[in-house]
Amino acid sequence: MLRALLVDDELHAVKSLEILLKECTPQVEVVGIARSASEALAMASTLNPNLVFLDIEMPPETGFDFLAQCKEVEFEVIFVTAYNHYAVKAFKHSAIDYIMKPVDLDDLKAAVKKASESIKIAQSSKMRYSILFDNLREVIPRKLVFRTSEGYRYFDVNDIISIHIDGNVLSILSVIKTTETIIVKDKAVLSSLDEKGFLNLGSTLVNLAKVSRIDKAEGGRAVMSNESVIHLNGFPRDVFIQKLEEFNNVSFTKK
Prior knowledge:
It contains 7 helices and 18 strands. It is α/β, with parallel strands linked by helices and 255 residues long. The protein folds into 2 domains: 137 residues, Response regulator (Rossmann fold, 3-Layer(aba) Sandwich); 98 residues, CATH 2.40.50.1020. It has a 5-stranded parallel beta sheet with strand order 2-1-3-6-7, sandwiched between helices. A 5-stranded antiparallel beta sheet has the order 12-11-10-14-13, with no helix packed on it. A hairpin with a 2-residue loop joins strand 8 and strand 9. Helix 2 crosses helix 3. The longest helix is centred in the middle third of the chain and has 17 residues.
């Protein structure tokens, strides 16, 4: 019998998974449900599961935080993820099983079968998870999570052109030229955006990966990949160009 711990901050998702497991995988016994990485850590040490169904994004922590804090990984993990195809490749290359949300019944059965076989031959889980972390190193930092009064909001860095800041109000311009306004409770995440390729112009953070060119019109402005225009507003144009050159060899046209 497989003793399974389900870890997901979304109640409807974890309940749906529990129902599917009970109906379609009689070899699996759900011994616990955790709604956060810290709760999962406590439950894993007391319930001793040999199989964990693990969500990735569970603000303020992640499923990887849970695994990193486990002193010994003595269980198989099936990731339940909504990540894009780039991250999925990382899972495949690491020989780790995963299920995409929404959960497909055939995928679930196949993953459980694979986990059961791995448990029988006692494969080294710790080593495989280390490989996965390395493969995902460039994927996970591309996610931004903001805490609002309504909960947590997720954004993909690749979808963002710029972020305008007015107190706790953020106006996020996307690549499809729509602007979403959110009120955040904590702006601490903004201080780390330089590591993700954003340049702070004062009240606006610009995604350097989305800059197409810079011209001298109106005191200097950056033309973005979606043809939107961001005025430098006194920010030194030469410094902007230098930052672009430092950022991953970005190609742009000076005018």
